[in-house]
Design goal:
This is Permease. By secondary structure, this protein is mostly helical. 80% of the residues lie in helices and 0% in strands.
């Protein structure tokens, strides 16, 4: 088990570390790199996985619903805590709700559980992204329009992939293979960009960051664990949901806070310390996930 955990985590942190090392001595245009990833490579991967009829989406309906519950439930659980501690809701709550299911989650889940986990990893990633760019943006600015959401490439790719899967429209194997190859670029690129981006944040508000590093995985697991018991998830989906619940805050929270001018340095501290905290949280979570995955059903 220790070998499996190390084999899963070491590539993740080595690729992110390579990004940090490169960003330390160079000044890559990481914003353009992230734009290319989010507008081309990630949508292609999402479309290819969803459009593939060998991955029937009906099998992932309970998992998608559980992911929605984890994201929104974390906010419900921590809202009174944030109010009691006098924290800014718009600054503290989104990083607790919207986790690193893209940069860390997808590659981590694939490395941990194999390629058969990719559809489940993409499903929870899509759920988190859609909620982030709907509920999350509404939390920051109630005047955010639905049209802004529908224009996003990842949303368009998700809807198109769902339509192809449900309709049963056959796509040529060569087309799916090309999309999978291009989409596969996004996974290491996400991790590399994560390493570069983390160089931009600091420890200026380490107390809030430390609190977030503790509460983010705790709140996610507090929702995920009962759902694993109550919902008809297979062992692989249960393991994916467990890891999803324990993921640290998404780097995207920092970018969004910067865009909306909502204490970006404070959000940066939450994101950085939360991701550093995952060095302790994720090995324990993966150990529990491997036990669950191989336990007699």
């Amino acid at each position: 088990m220790i070998g499996n955990i190390l084999g899963t985590l070491l590539p993740v942190f080595l690729i992110a570390g390579a990004g940090a090392a490169y960003g330390r001595f160079r000044t890559p245009d990481i914003r353009s790199l992230n734009t290319l990833n989010m507008e081309l490579f990630v949508p292609l991967l999402v479309f290819a996985v969803l459009a593939d009829r060998q991955a029937p989406l009906a099998d992932y309906a309970w998992l998608a619903g559980a992911a929605v519950a984890v994201v929104l439930g974390s906010g419900v659980l921590l809202w009174p805590v944030a109010r009691w501690l006098g924290l800014d809701i718009k600054t503290f709550l989104p990083p607790m709700m919207f986790n690193n299911s893209g940069n860390m989650g997808v590659p981590l889940l694939v490395l941990a559980f194999g390629e058969e986990a990719l559809p489940a990893a993409v499903v929870v990633f899509i759920v988190e992204m859609l909620l982030h760019f709907s509920v999350g943006l509404y939390m920051l600015n109630p005047r955010t329009s639905l049209w802004h959401l529908l224009r996003m490439p990842i949303v368009a790719a998700s809807l198109a992939g769902l339509a192809v899967n449900v309709s049963g429209l056959p796509l040529p194997e060569w087309l799916l293979e090309a999309m999978n190859m291009l989409g596969g670029v996004c996974i290491p690129l996400m991790l590399f960009a994560l390493g570069v981006r983390l160089l931009d944040v600091d420890f200026s508000d380490w107390r809030t960051g430390l609190l977030g590093a503790l509460l983010c995985p705790l709140s996610g697991l507090a929702i995920a664990l009962p759902l694993i018991v109550l919902l008809p998830l297979n062992s692989l989906q249960a393991a994916v949901l467990l890891v999803f619940g324990a993921l640290p805050p998404a780097v995207l929270n920092y970018l969004v806070a910067e865009q909306y001018r909502l204490s970006p340095h404070k959000v940066a501290s939450i994101v950085l310390i939360g991701n550093l905290g995952s060095l302790l949280v994720m090995p324990l979570t993966l150990a529990a996930a491997f036990i669950w995955l191989h336990a007699p059903q």
